[in-house]
Write a structure and sequence with these properties.
about 450 residues, alpha/beta, TIM Barrel, eleven-stranded mixed beta sheet, 14 strands, globular
């Protein structure tokens, strides 16, 4: 499958992407349109361009395309891989508490409570969750735990106890465990910063960007904005973090379709690992992203791409999460086909020990998989999620992004498209745009 991309960074640059091999070819306009004709992708208004190209040139280009096909880097046939079911669990999302000190209106978890009592995980539940992970990890040596909420730092002492126990338990079994914690930053004081820096493989801090954008939605229970405290604490954490993993994670909504400004604002504040992602809400919600907004959003990604390349050449270098693509050493084939592995390799555990496919399924009783407190685990649900992949998802087969999107979010597919193996159309369009932007950036930096 061959896809064609006009650069938004350099208008005179043309890209041809071979989806199956992952090969990216930078060509001139003549080769671009001849290839489009060859692979039945030429638009009607492009025919005239080809009429002005000498036949000799067309023959030369087609001969070169023949060679690329023979080398297996263009129009490569799809290879169907077998994905073995092992039943192994490699990662947990621990809901350390169902409570939060913010009241963000776009929060899918309903102010961190998931519409449940404000439960706090005890060490006993956390210990059982770690034991469950180890017991179900099979031959996997490297395990992962994400501390999530609500706001995890509201139950920080238990986080510390679980980390201490997990290291000892994994050492005893010859396994290695790493941790990530996601926080809104309000409780990220000096002692918390130091402990997280010492003990977390990754730390995610939520900031939506400019003060007026952040403070409009990320508010405390009394309605006041939270950016000043969060930003101060995040800046202090960045100072001690060095080259360890972290990123600033923001959300853009209908309120800030000019989200490029928020990304650049965060970079100007000294952050070099940034993610600002589209909100996912029912289209009736006033904050929702809708299909009608896509042209404006796409233009914003183009604007960000140009500035991204420019800044990465100077003293404001940064990574933008959705632009981090590695065509040479990307994820393994299985991960490309199955994505995050929610429900099969990765599960969420609530404060009371219930197991769900991921944090976005919590409290949906149809997808309750068991409990770490009594050792139950529904492998039928696990197998159902195991079968959710690029091969089984509708509309994935001819998509440019299928090996980078990996079929998209199962929760969004269920909640907004009506089935695990369906596709969330809006999410698909955004993913395709982010991938083409990433390829555009890759080509621009490759030639520098």
């Amino acid at each position: 499958m061959v896809k064609f991309i006009r650069s938004a960074i350099e208008p005179d640059k043309y890209l041809i992407f071979d989806v199956e091999s992952g090969s990216l070819h930078i060509v001139d306009s003549v080769a671009f349109y001849i290839a489009k004709k060859r692979y039945n992708a030429l638009e009607k208004d492009e025919e005239q361009f080809l009429n002005n190209i000498p036949q000799e040139t067309k023959d030369e280009v087609n001969a070169e395309l023949d060679e690329l096909e023979k080398d297996g880097v263009l129009n490569t046939p799809e290879v169907k891989y077998n994905i073995p079911y092992t039943g192994e669990i490699k990662a947990l999302c621990l809901h350390i508490c169902h409570d939060c000190n913010l009241r963000c209106p776009y929060c899918f978890a309903h102010s961190g409570t998931y519409n449940t009592p404000k439960d706090y995980m005890t060490f006993e539940v956390g210990k059982n969750a770690i034991d469950f992970l180890i017991a179900h990890s099979g031959i996997r040596r490297n395990l992962e735990v994400d501390f999530f909420g609500g706001e995890p730092l509201m139950n920080f002492d238990v986080v510390k106890q679980i980390v201490e126990y997990a290291h000892k338990a994994c050492d005893a079994k010859g396994k290695v465990i790493s941790f990530t914690l996601t926080t809104n930053g309000l409780l990220l004081n000096e002692s918390a910063r130091q402990w997280l820096n010492d003990n977390m493989e990754n730390v995610v801090i939520s900031i939506d960007g400019r003060e007026e954008i952040h403070d409009k939605l990320r508010v405390t229970p009394n309605g006041s904005g939270s950016q000043a405290i969060t930003l101060k604490n995040a800046i202090e954490f960045r100072k001690i973090r060095g080259d360890k993993k972290y990123y600033i994670r923001g959300t853009f909504t209908a309120n800030n379709l000019d989200f490029c400004e928020d990304v650049l604002y965060l970079n100007d504040k000294g952050f070099d690992q940034i993610s600002v992602e589209p909100v996912v809400l029912d289209e009736k919600d006033p904050l929702a992203i809708t299909e009608q907004m896509l042209p404006q959003i796409f233009a914003e990604y183009d604007k960000l791409s140009r500035e991204y390349v420019k800044r990465r050449k100077g003293d404001k270098w940064f990574n933008f999460f959705h632009y981090m693509i590695d065509l040479k050493n990307g994820p393994c084939v299985i991960k490309r086909l199955r994505g995050c592995g929610a429900g099969s390799e990765y599960v969420a555990v609530t404060p009371v020990g219930d197991i769900y496919p991921c944090h976005q399924f919590v409290t949906d009783k149809e997808y309750l998989m068991g409990s770490v407190m009594d050792g139950t685990f529904n492998t039928d649900i696990q197998k159902k999620f195991f079968d959710v992949n690029v091969y089984s998802k509708e509309n994935c087969s001819d998509c440019i992004a299928k090996y980078y999107c990996s079929g998209g979010c199962a929760a969004n597919a269920l909640h907004f498209a009506g089935g695990l193996n369906k596709c969330h159309k809006l999410g698909c369009e955004l993913m395709k745009k982010r991938l083409t932007s990433s390829l555009d950036i890759y080509a621009a930096e490759l030639e520098d």
